[in-house]
Each structure stands twice: as structure tokens, then as C-alpha cells.
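Action item from last meeting closed. Structure (188 res):
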């Protein structure tokens, strides 16, 4: 059975990483997480090499020059990129990969991997999104407002996705994502 890339995108604070954890927990043996590289500062509770590989702008730009990313983008003023080697290794070994990347990254992945499955996680409302970002206590008020501004543009891109899952009730959103993955796994 061929390996597939599963991409989740959605505005910051919508619940992508919470949903990704649940997916990875359920599909332990068949899906690995693509650990992106980023130049954004590490957040409290994150570990270098687990959520992201954290690096400097200088190093990131050097890697761009070496074609080390399948796709990369500047999101909220920081660089983020999907390391090529991780994806190619997993696909060669027949292992599916889950990516949590922005809307431009998702479109670039689809260009390179046409059978990638793109899932957009949508918030119940912008106000609920703001509340989640505040409650997460990881970003300043300025950063939150910038993320909300970007969210509106990101939601407009959701029509380009294969699936849209609204994260109102977390358990239900997780169930929906897992069903989508199971359905695509059956296709082989
Ligand atoms: P993202 O990875 O998209 O930035 P997170 O997974 O960090 O978002 O979720 C942002 C916050 O919202 C977290 O505190 C998380 O526990 C919470 N959250 C996620 N899904 C829901 C939901 N359906 N209802 C309420 N809170 C949620
Ligand atoms: P955060 O800083 O909140 O972890 O992520 C900010 C945004 O960057 C999210 O929309 C996330 O999906 C996106 N992102 C994370 N890694 C990558 C990546 O490798 N490539 C792209 N294009 N976007 C990424």
C-alpha cells in the first residue's frame, strides 16, 4: 500500500496540534509526524526536536539554498519549513506522514504529492478562536491580534482543501479526522 501525506491546516489556536496528537496516538504504527523547522522562538512546554526543530534565520536561509525543504513559508514573520529528508524517508519506507502546515505550504505539498490529503480545521467562530488563543497563555496580545488577522485570510483558503472539519466539539472533530484518514487508507 502506498504511503500518503495527510496535511492539516487552520488558523492558529483552532486546535491543530491537539487534534494531531490524538491522530498520532490512534495511528501509532502507520503515521509519523513531520517535524518542521522554524525560526520562531521556542514556547514554554515545547522541546527542540519534538514540536519543531528550532533554528536561526541564518541557518534556515542556508538550508533553503541547499534545497533542504519540500516547502517553506514565512508565517507570522517567522520561517517554517518541511525538511525534505524526513518526508522522502517515510514515503520510501511506506509510512504515512502527518503535516501541520499553513495554507500555502499545503498547496505546495499538493503540487509535489498530488494524492496528499488536505484537511482544513475551521473554528466555530473568530471570537471562539480569540478565546482559545488567550486561554492557551502562549502568546502576547499583539501576537494574538496578528494571528486573528491572518485567520480570516486562512479561512478563505479552506475551499481549496479536500475536507473541512469544524472544531467545535474536540472529540467529534478528532473522530471526523480519523474517519477521513481511515477512508483514505482503505483506498491504498
Ligand atoms: P493550534 O495547534 O491550532 O494552534 P492548539 O491545539 O494549541 O491549536 O489549541 C489551542 C487551544 O484550544 C488549546 O488550549 C486547546 O486545548 C484548546 N482547544 C482545542 N480544541 C478545542 C475545542 N474543540 N474546544 C475548546 N478548546 C479547544
Ligand atoms: P505555530 O507557531 O503556532 O506552531 O504555527 C504557526 C503556523 O505555521 C501554523 O499555521 C502552522 O500550521 C504553520 N507551520 C508549521 N510548520 C510549517 C511548515 O513546515 N511549513 C509551513 N508552510 N507552515 C508551517
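Sequence:
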Amino acid at each position: 500500500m502506498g504511503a500518503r501525506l495527510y496535511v492539516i491546516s487552520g488558523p492558529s489556536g483552532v486546535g491543530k496540534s491537539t487534534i494531531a496528537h490524538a491522530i498520532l496516538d490512534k495511528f501509532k504504527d502507520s503515521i509519523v509526524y513531520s517535524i518542521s523547522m522554524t525560526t520562531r522562538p521556542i514556547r514554554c512546554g515545547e522541546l527542540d526536536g519534538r514540536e519543531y526543530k528550532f533554528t536561526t534565520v541564518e541557518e534556515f536561509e542556508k538550508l533553503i539554498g541547499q534545497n533542504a525543504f519540500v516547502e517553506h513559508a514565512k508565517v507570522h514573520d517567522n520561517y517554517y519549513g518541511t525538511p525534505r529528508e524526513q518526508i522522502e524517508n517515510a514515503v520510501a519506507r511506506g509510512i504515512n506522514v502527518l503535516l501541520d502546515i499553513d495554507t500555502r505550504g499545503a498547496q505546495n505539498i499538493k503540487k509535489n504529492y498530488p494524492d496528499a490529503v488536505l484537511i482544513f480545521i475551521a473554528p466555530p467562530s473568530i471570537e471562539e478562536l480569540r478565546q482559545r488563543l488567550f486561554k492557551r497563555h502562549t502568546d502576547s496580545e499583539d501576537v494574538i491580534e496578528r494571528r486573528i488577522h491572518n485567520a480570516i485570510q486562512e479561512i478563505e483558503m479552506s475551499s481549496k482543501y479536500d475536507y473541512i472539519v469544524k472544531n467545535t466539539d474536540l472529540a467529534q472533530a478528532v473522530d471526523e479526522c480519523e474517519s477521513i484518514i481511515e477512508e483514505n487508507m482503505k483506498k491504498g
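Note appended to the action item: Residues 170-187 form the longest helix (18 residues).
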